[in-house]
Amino acid sequence: MPCECCHKEIESKSKSESDEDQLVISGNAEHPANLICELCRNFYENGWVTGTGGGISIRDRERELLYLAPSGVQKERIIPKNIFVMDFKNKAYIRKPENLKPSACTPLFIAAYGIRNAGACIHTHSQSAVLCTLLFDKVFEISSIEQIKAIPKVTEPGNLWYSDKLVIPIIENTEKEEQLESTLREAIEKYPGTTAVLVRRHGIYVWGETVWKAKVYNEAIDYLLELAIKMRQLGIPTVKQLE
Ligand SMILES: CSCCC(=O)C(=O)COP(=O)(O)O
Ligand SMILES: [Zn+2]
């Protein structure tokens, strides 16, 4: 709409806005901005990102960009225009939607990208993840369950075998999400075979080489966390003794 007093100013603002919008507006369903919205709805339906908790970031390896969900908003209602975009090399924001803050998980996502060369990182407040951090001490462990075969070995190609033991480190929670960065980095370094880190009384971070791998790992791990709670309730050890 034309402005009577400052017509030019409004024209130039809307131009720069539309340039920035091009980074996140796409008809391609596989565009990271569209995927973040789709996956946040999926995670919400699973009860993993309710009440604004949790989030996701996706890396565009070709364009060397990071896409990040905004902070403190209902994650299932995010639209592409709400997505932040960061230059992967210098970590400067090249798209900052007005009136929104980037996810407080950003330094943790960056740790997974930097240390593990991840292509996407997911953070959920899954109740199974939280409960497992109350049932296990330093690490979550489970073995001899078929679903373990969906989890990568990480230190070598291929996935774990049915009878392999899945080990996920547990770090202590902090008052602010971003304060988790140093202990998350330590856990990733200490457990080179892990593709996830649990946060006590808080949730879980899961990453993968691509967004789809991260999604599958997150689903498989959540299945195993939920199963482990039920096994404990029934008095069944989560790690099977080898015969
Ligand atoms: C009730 S959410 C508290 C903050 C949190 O743990 C979280 O995962 C949300 O982070 P974001 O900044 O991405 O909204
Ligand atoms: Zn959180």
Automatic annotation (TrEMBL):
Pathway, per record: Amino-acid biosynthesis; L-methionine biosynthesis via salvage pathway; L-methionine from S-methyl-5-thio-alpha-D-ribose 1-phosphate: step 2/6
Cofactor: record remark: Binds 1 zinc ion per subunit.
Record-linked InterPro entries: Aldolase_II/adducin_N, Aldolase_II/adducin_N_sf, MethylthioRu-1-P_deHdtase_MtnB, Salvage_MtnB_euk
Enzyme class per UniProt: lyase
Pfam family, one: Aldolase_II
Cofactor(s), names only, from the UniProt record: Zn(2+)
GO BP terms, alphabetized: L-methionine salvage from methylthioadenosine
Organism superkingdom: Eukaryota
Positions of Zn(2+) binding: H123, H125, H202
Active site: E146
Cellular component GO terms, alphabetical: cytoplasm
Primary subcellular site in the record, as a coarse category: cytoplasm
Reaction catalyzed: 5-(methylsulfanyl)-D-ribulose 1-phosphate = 5-methylsulfanyl-2,3-dioxopentyl phosphate + H2O
Subcellular location: Cytoplasm
Domain Class II aldolase/adducin N-terminal: 34-229
GO molecular-function terms, A-Z: methylthioribulose 1-phosphate dehydratase activity; zinc ion binding
SMART domains noted in UniProt: Aldolase_II (SM01007)
Keyword field: Amino-acid biosynthesis, Cytoplasm, Lyase, Metal-binding, Methionine biosynthesis, Zinc
EC code: 4.2.1.109
Family label: Belongs to the aldolase class II family. MtnB subfamily.
Functional note: Catalyzes the dehydration of methylthioribulose-1-phosphate (MTRu-1-P) into 2,3-diketo-5-methylthiopentyl-1-phosphate (DK-MTP-1-P).
Protein name per Swiss-Prot or TrEMBL: Methylthioribulose-1-phosphate dehydratase
Gene: MDE1
